[in-house]
Hints:
Blueprint: E1 2-9, E2 12-20, E3 26-29, H1 38-50, E4 58-59, E5 71-72, H2 74-82, H3 88-104, H4 106-132, H5 139-159, H6 167-184, H7 195-204, H8 209-216, H9 222-233, H10 238-245, H11 249-268
Antiparallel strand pairs: 1-2, 2-3, 4-5
Helix pairs in contact: 1-4, 1-11, 3-4, 3-5, 4-5, 4-6, 5-6, 8-9, 9-11, 10-11
Amino acid sequence: MSLKMTESQTEGTTEVEIDRDSRGEAVPQDFHGRAPSVLSGVHRAGLEWSKVRTRPIFDGRSLGVGEAVGLLELPELRGLLLDTATPAGLKDRCWTELLRCLRRAWDVWLPACLWLALPGLRRRSGLLHRQLRPADVALEDIDGELLTGFLIELQAASSQVGRETRVLGRLLDAASRYALRTLDAGGGAHDGLSPIGDRAAAVEGHPELVLWRAVGAGLICAQDSELIARTRLEGHPLRAEAVRAGVSLAAVSARRRRAELAVANAVLRGEL
């Protein structure tokens, strides 16, 4: 059984196909009908996390004169942000406050911000897919690089919160440029840190610690950890890794993608 759920947002309308598994649980697919990717993992983690009793409550009581929205549960806040009738200024104030929440407690609010931004991320993924289609770039790679760019921009924006317009739109614009620049390079490697390494560096002082913990937890093997570290943290081209391993670029890209998805989902669940 399947149904179609439409989510409206400031940038347009995103249609997300929702299937049901044998237990009746929702199994999301992106609107291209592709297999679950890192964005699908964000969706599932966000749904699970939003049901936890200890989840944070968004305090919108000080957003501005005439725009106080009170205390909101995350599903209520998501509905407010996706509602086309909500003034753009109010959405900007909500996202500005979310950035302040991130600055105060990154680990607590990161899953929330990713879940709230997911409709916009999915739409940007679709736009990038159409733009990069001649280059035959895998959709999973687009999602991965888009999420990487968004996390980098979130961290930068949360450290310097100001009064801006199109707060989410600016973050998505920057994430899209990052993904396009990285994927156009042809190897998937980039000069910045991966989202996993970037967060680990901020918390622990060394970007590879989270990868080591993932290996210790049995989430990925040591070889996959080394692959992520070389291509994401050290900037080695993915094509060079494919030649080194004697396999195709598609094979090594899929291998890295599977490993990153496993680690990213564990990070979102708070397991690493």
